[in-house]
Specification:
Length: 480
């Protein structure tokens, strides 16, 4: 005989399924009529009502939807934002807000008091920095945008801390794998010209040189880099094999390849080093080096032979162009000579000097969000980055955060988002060994690519930190 609790859960499930079964055909009929009659406002209203109904009946789906929308590369025709009250609201932010309310209201998922206190402290610093109106060079609209990105990071931190170690967390990880396998072929299609992708595209050459490749900077690039970093950390530490991680690693590497980003290479290097340090095993280091050498001995001759024999074919020409572009921009681009002539690297050095010059003016509390610490790099209002973004955007997140939030903000960030990585160095579980190197890699990369200032990268950092907090809390509870 079933318990009263089991009967209650079954009744709730039956009620929810009945509602979906009855409402589904009705919504489908209304949506069909709206599409055929070209009533776009009705289409939008029906979609919003349908999504709201589903989330009310299955609130855990908000977590899966958030993961998919935040981490998937999409074509330009798949709009993922909408203007609201003068700001661009991303659809994944709506689902993140629903997921946050869900984990806070559900007693079974509610994060620990310590997690909520840390999140509240950092949120308080963000709000304090938003209310600061330093002077005429402060943009309120820019301040609001920066505050929303940082609040997204806090929300992702709380949600990840709540669902990690639960069935929802494992299902969210599967949703991330689905996102990677959707994003990888879409990215490849964008590389060969079959699709135009949402995000940013540019030539892969440095200092004005042309290599023939095209960088595809999409929403999936840093989530993919985080996944690849975690997989490599598990492999080099000996906790997992390539066979058990390839379903995550292969699509992640494909996405990263077409981004042609030196930042991703830095992430992989940092995560690999941290994974080796956490393994504390010389055997793992030598075994990894031997495997890499074997793969290189097999693949390099095959590549050289193929490019010589089939050099005139279009597929081989395409592959050769990608390999050359990656070698010139990513590998050679990290040398001192390349950095000395790279306009992007030189711009960031000048930007750092501008940040340092104004940091001492309000060291404790900062100038506040939306503060223009440097003049525009363009006088043309149509130059989106140079005129509208460059005065407020610092590529070194830590210098930028010191300028806008002061030492108080820097300490709060370290306490909430950096401390979990240090504590997790003692972790022995596969999840801890995967997440700790990823978090360290994200924090190191934020010195040259300000992840908390970008969407959806801010939620990636927040989610990894929150998940690591939950993993570490579980490990401590298991030992006591």
């Amino acid at each position: 005989m079933q318990s009263p609790a089991a009967i209650a859960r079954w009744s709730t499930q039956v009620d929810a399924n009945t509602c979906v079964a009855v409402a589904g055909p009705v919504v489908a009929l209304i949506a069909t009529y709206a599409v055929l009659s070209d009533r776009r406002s009705l289409v939008l209203a029906v979609l919003v009502a349908a999504i709201a109904t589903v989330l009310a009946l299955r609130p855990r789906w908000s977590v899966y939807g958030f993961v998919l929308l935040a981490t998937t590369a999409l074509p330009t025709w798949a709009h993922t934002t909408r203007r609201f009250a003068g700001q661009s609201v991303r659809y994944y932010e709506v689902l993140l807000a629903v997921a946050l309310m869900y984990v806070l209201l559900d007693k079974r998922l509610r994060p620990s008091g310590g997690t909520l206190v840390r999140a509240a402290v950092f949120l308080g610093v963000v709000l304090m920095s938003w209310f600061v109106d330093a002077n005429s060079v402060t943009s309120r609209s820019r301040a609001t945008l920066e505050a929303l990105l940082l609040m997204d990071m806090v929300a992702a931190y709380v949600v990840a801390a709540a669902v990690t170690n639960t069935e929802i967390g494992w299902e969210a990880l599967k949703a991330l794998r689905v996102s990677l396998w959707i994003s990888a072929p879409i990215t490849i299609a964008g590389s060969v010209g079959l699709l135009t992708l949402a995000g940013h595209t540019e030539e892969t050459g440095l200092a004005g040189t042309l290599t023939g490749g095209t960088r595809l900077l999409t929403a999936a690039q840093f989530p993919a880099a985080a996944v690849a970093s975690g997989c490599l950390a598990l492999i080099v530490s000996g906790r997992k094999s390539f066979r058990s991680t390839w379903t995550y690693l292969l699509p992640a590497l494909a996405i990263m390849l077409f981004a042609f980003s030196r930042n991703h290479l830095i992430m992989l290097a940092v995560a690999t080093l941290v994974g080796l340090l956490m393994s504390r095993s010389l055997y793992q280091v030598t075994a990894l080096a031997a495997r890499v050498l074997v793969v290189a001995v097999i693949l390099v001759p095959l590549y050289l032979l193929g490019t010589r024999v089939f050099a005139s074919t279009a597929p081989v020409h395409y592959v050769t162009t990608q390999v050359t572009s990656y070698r010139e921009r990513v590998l050679a681009g990290l040398t001192g000579k390349a950095l000395a002539t790279d306009p992007s690297a030189q711009y960031r050095l000048a930007e750092n000097n501008n940040l340092i010059a104004v940091a001492h003016e309000n060291t404790v509390m900062g100038h506040g969000l939306g503060y223009a610490f440097q003049p525009p790099t363009s006088t043309d209002p149509r130059a989106d980055f140079g005129y509208n973004v460059a005065p407020y955007y610092g590529h070194n997140f830590y210098l930028w955060w010191l300028v806008v939030a002061g030492i108080v903000g820097l300490c709060a960030f370290a306490w909430v988002f950096a401390a979990p990585a240090l504590v997790a160095f003692r972790s022995r579980s596969p999840a801890g060994i995967a997440l700790a190197p990823v978090l360290v890699a994200l924090l190191v990369t934020s010195a040259v690519a300000p992840l908390p200032e970008d969407a959806p990268n801010s939620v990636v950092l927040g989610a990894v930190a929150g998940a690591l907090v939950a993993i570490r809390r579980r490990e401590v509870a298991e030992r006591t």
